[in-house]
Amino acid sequence: MSSLESILGVNFPKDVIINGVTNNSQKVKDGFVFFALKGINSHGSEYIGQAIDSGASLVIHDDPNYINNEDNVIYVKDLSIFDSFTFKNKIFLFLEEFYKLYDIQNKNNYFAFTGTNGKTSTAYLTHQILVKSGYESIYIGTLGTKYNDEQMNKSISSKTTPDIFEFFEIFNFYNFHDSVSVCIEISSHALSQERLKGISFYNSAALLNIGTDHLDYHGNSKAYANAKFQIFNPSCPLMLINDNLTKLEDNYNYLKNDNYKLTSISKVNKSADIYYEVVSSDIDKSLFNIKINNPPIGYFPSSSTTYKFSCRLFPEFNIENLVFGLCSIGFSDFSQSAINNLNYLNLPKGRTELINNIPANVIIDFAHNAEGLELFLSSIKNYFSKLIVVFGCGGDRDRSKRPKMMQAAIANASDIIFTTDNSRSEDFSSIFEDAVEGNKEEKIIPIEDRREAIIYGSKLVGDDDCLVILGKGHEETQEISGKTNFFSDHEVVNEIYK
Hints:
Layout: H1 3-8, E1 20-22, E2 32-36, H2 48-53, E3 58-61, E4 73-75, H3 90-99, E5 109-114, H4 119-132, E6 137-141, E7 144-147, H5 164-173, E8 181-185, H6 188-193, E9 204-207, H7 215-218, H8 221-229, E10 238-242, H9 253-256, E11 262-266, E12 274-281, E13 286-292, E14 305-311, H10 316-329, H11 336-340, E15 341-342, E16 353-354, E17 362-365, H12 370-380, E18 387-391, H13 401-412, E19 415-418, H14 428-436, E20 444-446, H15 450-458, E21 466-470, E22 477-480, E23 483-486, H16 489-497
Parallel strand pairs: 1-2, 2-3, 3-4, 5-8, 5-9, 6-8, 9-10, 10-11, 11-12, 14-15, 17-21, 18-19, 18-21, 19-20
Antiparallel strand pairs: 6-7, 12-13, 13-14, 16-17, 22-23
């Protein structure tokens, strides 16, 4: 019996070929093992036939009701049950053995970030600091994966947070057999689905903020917030939280339990565990200070110490993201000179991205919910005479956030062009009606075609104004009427100003 057979407690068909492992039937290739597991809306057993047709040499499933007549389709009981001592299950052990990547949950340094807004930027900035400081680091998140200074790779996972199958695939792709720092975004979906169960030994876990998003999935704001709080684990040595969240009315068990030693960060409360102050902020340069009032043991040299920093990030919410990244790493392993000058840092594509080398002020950003729009627009409007905003709302998603997003735009913009985002199966007209409900304003101009909307907005921009294009950021596709088509805000802007 082979080691893989022993892990599952079954016998494979004679001379079976195993070239890869996946739980996604669309990723199956010749000689792949397909793990057919329970999903959110269906069981993977529904796709066994599709997997075999795609070349699967072996199917492992845990559906007791599946009727099987094939030798290469094998039922395994208790696939997903974790051992309380090793914190591994049969799937985890199988992936370890197949990829020869052992003890992946313990030997690497994990820096995990969640929040309604800012987790991509924070994880990306943290990755840059680690690389600049001489550490081996990988970013994993919305943008794909990035190892050290290599180009971003989007080929393995399309999710904000990969599942455990994709996680092992990522580590195998980069041939990580020694320890590496991992800067990873953790979405509310991933937390509620326990997508990375088994990888819970974070060096640090940070909760940046909680707004209202994904209520179509979570059901209500409390369930959404509870999902975000699941990033914290008593075994994690450093747990960072926005000080505002420590005053939540519900007083989540995480805040009341002595096992959760949360470290608060604030730019308002000078008595927070970590207090930061923005000294100045401009498009070209920002200065800020961090004061450590109550340092977690081993992460900061001493208490009551103020550290000074400079960077080229703006506006202030990006400085907050940077503060969370810096504090997640801690300062004890870095020289003062290494952390003071952070002018080498840059934000990822589509995050407060001021487009260079064009004769106009144009910013592309991923803001796609009410809190994100309000925070972003209110933070940048003082840098310009007026804002011309192009944005839309996603179709087949939480309808309640649409008028709130419009309210945020009306409160901060001089002109608003409402257009398509990812309308999916919904009509543009119904999305627009939801958005303008209770928000009848003359300055709202609906233009369904996103390209035409951006072109129209560009004609309204004066020398001291700014065209702000929101919602898609780095994305290069649009989902409309069940079809996914190529579309890039960046490409349209370059066409206009070429």
